[in-house]
Amino acid sequence: MQSFREGGALYGRGCGGSRYLHMTELGDPGFVALGLVAPSSEALADFAAARGLAVEPLDRPGGGTMVQLRDPDNYLLELVAGQAAAAPAIPSRSTAPNDATEKRRLRTVHRIDPKPSHVVRLGHCVLGVSDFRRSEAWYKEHFGFITSDEVVLPDGAAIGAFLRCDRGDELTDHHSLFLIQGPRGVGFNHAAFEILDADDLFVGHDWLQRAGWTPHWGIGRHVLGSQIFDYWRDPWGHTLEHWTDGDLFTAADGSRQASLAELMGVQWGHAMPHPAN
Predict the structure, then answer these.
(1) What is the pLDDT of residue 247?
(2) Cα 56 to Cα 75, 85, 232, distances in angstroms
(3) Domain 2-81 is found in CATH 3.10.180.10
C-alpha cells in the first residue's frame, strides 16, 4: 500500500481504483469512521433526503460528496459518492499456475520477487456491537445488507452476522461487514484488505516478518467466507487482515446459520489466538 500526505492527513491507497483505502489524522489512537460508497450521487441525495441528513462536499483526494450518520453504538459512517477514481495499477501475473489437473505454465519458470503484498481494496470491516439484533436491523434498514451467515450459540441465541451487499444478480463478497456482540464489547475489531493472490499473501507475510513485525493470526483459510487470511497488528494495536480467494454470492443465494466453532475455526492453518492476545 502506498502512502501520501494531503491536507494534514496521511492516506494509504492500494493498486485498485480507490483514491485511498484509509485515512489517518493526528490525535489519540482510535477508530474514527467507516466509509461506504453509494452507487451514485443521485442515490446519495435520495438517501440523505429520506433521513433529513445533509450532503456535504468531500474535501479529500478525489472530491465528491458525503453524508455522515451514526449507528446505534455511535460508530460514524461516511457514505460517499462522486469521488474521482484513481488509475488502477494492479500488476499482471507473470506466469500462470500449474496444478494436478491443468497445466498452464509451459516451458517457463515461476519466480516471485521479495516485496510487500499488493493491496487492491478494502474488503470488509468487523465491528463489536452492544446489541446485535438492534445493529443488524439498523444496517439492513439503512444500507440493504443481506445476511450470509448468522452466528448462533448452542442455545440458539444469535451473536453476530456476516453481511453482504444486495446487488441482485451481481456477485458480491460473502461479507462487507461483520457485526459481533461478544466479550470484547463495543469497538473496532479489524479491517480486511484484499490482496492479489495466494503467492502475494505469502510473500507479503515473509516481507513483514523480515521487517521485524510479529504475525497476529495466520496464515490459514477461514471456514466462513472461505478466504485465505493473514492478520497483523499496526503500531497502535489495531488488527488488520490481508486476504484472498473469498466466497462470492448473489442475492438469490440466501442466508444460513453457523456455529461459534465455524466462526473461530479454520479449514487449515493456524488456530485463532486466545481473545486476550
Answers:
(1) 98
(2) 19, 19, 35
(3) yes
CATH class of the domain at 119-269 = alpha beta
146-177-75 Cα angle (round to 5): 115
Give me the half-sphere count of Cα atoms (radius 13 Å) on the Cβ side of residue 186: 9
**CA–CA gap between residue 242 and residue 200 (Å, rounded):** 10
Please tell me the least confidently modeled range out of 92-101, 135-144, 189-198.
Answer: 92-101
Helix ranges, the chain (H) = 41-51, 132-143, 198-210, 260-264
- Residue 136 CB neighbours (<10 A): 21
- HSE-up (13 A, CA, CB side) for residue 94: 8
Place of cell 523480515: 210
Question: Is the model's pTM score more than 0.85?
Answer: yes
CB count in 10 Å sphere of residue 27: 7
Q: Grade residue 76 by pLDDT with cuts at 50, 70 and 90.
A: very high
Q: How do the domains of the chain map onto residue ranges? A: 2-81, 119-269
In the prediction, which pLDDT does 275 show? Answer: 64
Give every CB contact of residue 219 below 8 A, 6+ residues apart in sequence. Answer: 201, 202, 205, 228, 229, 230, 269, 270
Length of the chain: 277
